[in-house]
Amino acid sequence: MSQNAIPVFNALIRTHHITSRKKVAKLVKAADKYACYVLLRSGGSPGIMYCEGNEEGVRSWVSTVQKLRYKDYQLVGRPNALVLETMDAKERPIRGHLHEVAAVKEFGAKMESLGIWEWWRHAMGYTP
Asked: What is the DSSP letter of 85?
């Protein structure tokens, strides 16, 4: 990262489930408004939300999620500077977009491709 580069932040949220299309539509709008990349695991339990962007955008997006009052809302990965675990990570995703996956396995695969597999596993409680 160059000296003038803005640090990338990320956050991870776990909920009971993500099924409301109205709430997902609000999350799509917030991803665009705050220029964040968002990945959702929707359709069943658990609901998982990953957000990546600049610090203000990530914090604002997380605030939007909190206001939607998801059941069993847990901010398991508080907004913090992104730390890549591997230099093999693919390019950073396009900001301002929200993507959905149906399976935790798919979500994990995306976390691995983003170079944050161990961070995600720890935040989810899969590893100590």
From this structure: S
The phi and psi torsions of 67 (rounded to 5 degrees) equal: -70, -20
| Short-list 75, 85, 97, 79, CA closest to 30 | 97
Instruction: Enter the DSSP assignment of 2.
Output: -
Closest CA to 23 of 57, 58, 68, 59: 68
Angle at 48 between CA 46 and CA 50, to 5 degrees: 170
For 125, the token pair is 């409680």
Question: Are 32 and 87 spatial neighbours (Cβ–Cβ below 8 Å)?
Answer: no
- Convert the pLDDT of each residue in 20-51 to its tens digit: 999 999 999 999 999 999 999 999 899 999 99
The CATH fold of domain 9-124: Alpha-Beta Plaits (3.30.70)
Domain boundaries, the chain: 9-124
DSSP 88: T
Tens-digit pLDDT profile for residues 66-88: 999 999 999 999 999 999 887 66
